[in-house]
Records
---
Amino acid sequence: MKMLTLSHVEKHFGEKQVLRDVSFSVPEHTVFGFVGQNGAGKTTAMKLILGLLPLNSGQITVNGSAVSYGNTDTNRFIGYLPDVPEFYSYMTPAEYLSFCGAITGMPKQEIKKRSHELLSLVGLENESHRIKGFSRGMKQRLGVAQALLNRPRLLICDEPTSALDPAGRKELLDILTAAKKQTTVLFSTHILSDVEHICDELAFLHDGRIVLQGTLKEVRKLRRASDVELEMEHARDAELLLSDFPFLRRQGQNLLFLEEGKALPEILGRIAEEKLPIRRVERMEPTLEDLFMEVIAK
Ligand SMILES: Nc1ncnc2c1ncn2[C@@H]1O[C@H](COP(=O)(O)OP(=O)(O)O)[C@@H](O)[C@H]1O
Ligand SMILES: [Mg+2]
């Protein structure tokens, strides 16, 4: 079942067209990466999903119900962590969650139980200091806990890792992965390694359009065949191969580079014929970064 679907969504601010025919859907209990550079339109799309902005055409459904602009009913399914979350900084994490639970009418016992579960999920269960002194990472983690308080079916996080250091990012990504058991996660990012680490599926928004989407595996397959590095034991053998196969590129004394692995069997055949000692043959796993650079360059 699809937890979220955008179909043919268009959004402009005055003359400025920000989203053009954006369609994608997010399956239940997955982590979905919404990827794009700054200004691509990620936050705008998230605000449309939350009914905070009107769309110009197209349709959005959350958990099967249509989103309408304004006080949309579908928000009862959603937990949202904005890009710059604000907290009451004089409260402790537990006080903050109790406060948030109370204003949404959660019963006291339920608040207590849920806060305990969530604070341990985000690694803040022993934190009794006020939010005031928290690092950015701690604040983001508390933000995730708050967004999950009402057991949303869809958790939307806007660039939750962007302002964090590598350790903080890793912690947050682990939490989003763990959250997948209880909800569906849509998060935006411009950091491609985040996507490679935790996403089941992704959509890449570029200049207001979805230019790539699918599972990580599908998206990786779209890339041309991977390059191969060939490291010879002796420099003279590298030279020999270069003269036979002029399309090889030399990258060091003994190191050759074969674009897209072209003619690899022939080259290996020649190596076997001459019994040339090899140090290493390696297929270079293409990164998402490479792929996106290719797509953007088109
Ligand atoms: N309220 C607005 N009025 C006019 N332009 C806007 C408004 N909000 C966003 N934009 C423009 O829309 C584009 C996409 O912005 P945004 O959705 O914030 O991108 P992202 O979150 O991917 O960085 C940007 O060019 C931004 O300047
Ligand atoms: Mg944004």
---
Amino acid sequence: MIHRTIPAVQGPDLSLQSCWQEQLRSVITCPQHLLQILGLNATDLGYSEEALGAFALRVTPAFVARMEHGNPRDPLLMQVLPHQNEMRQQDSAQWQMDPLAESHYRAAEGLIHKYRGRVLLIAAPQCAINCRYCFRRHFPYEENAPSRKEWQQSFNYIREDSSIEEVILSGGDPLVLSDRQLEWLIEEIENIEHVKRLRIHSRLPIVLPARLSERFNRRLSMSRLQSILVIHANHPNEIDEEVCCALRASRDAGITLLNQSVLLRGINDNCDIFTMLSNKLFECGVLPYYLHLLDKVKGASHFQVEKSEALTLYNKLRAQLPGYLVPQLVEEIPGADSKTVIA
Ligand code: SF4
């Protein structure tokens, strides 16, 4: 059992964390403010106003606190700073607004039914952080923001298809919802008899760990549904003691914790980085789950790592780690029945 082998750590007392919603309201959206905190100058960084206009800057102070002061190549900074490379012309042909063709799988407002047995609800129209490589950076959230009444169409859709055993809350980030909104959604899903599992995809446990509150953990541990929280960390520097402490509390509440990463040029395209990441995740009670090749979303081509390079990195990783700490290397091919496992 994972949790018996991990010693207790000294960490911040989560009960003393300021309200997570207050922290969410303090999200940094001004590039000058961000660069001032880090002691950096926009002209040295390839920062682009045009890229900012195409996709806003959003980053939590907690995530910024883990960036290295004065380092223009900081791997966390590079994930969030609008960059001139995003406007490169060669993006236009191969790199698309909807790289996974999700619009084809829209079964109701805010509901995507792509794979057998599970559906995905776009539970929230925004995130606490805007990752520059995000495959939903152009997603039409305004067309997928149902009211409570409109959500009933999605619940009816799930109710009428008894093959659906798992509901995935995604977004945007579902954990930016208030506790009341989230609890309402969970209850509606619990009321659908044939649904067995609730999966939550969220980057908040990394960028705003206070969100994993006692109330959140308690609600999931009380649920009749099996709960799986899939977090998203790309680099070991994203995990500090506060993150680790929050994750362990969720794990101790009986929530299964998995991580997915995206392979990103200049950020984590290095075997040692993934070795450190997997080890850190496991110390926090999280199993590495997927390592994704970058989805070909317009504006993100400069992050691409070629498949052959990814395979070389992956084979090295397999030689360095026990099998349970090696995530599956996958890519998402529009129209396929599931994610395509590369290795
Ligand atoms: S959906 Fe995930 S990857 Fe995309 S911007 Fe939000 S947190 Fe980042």
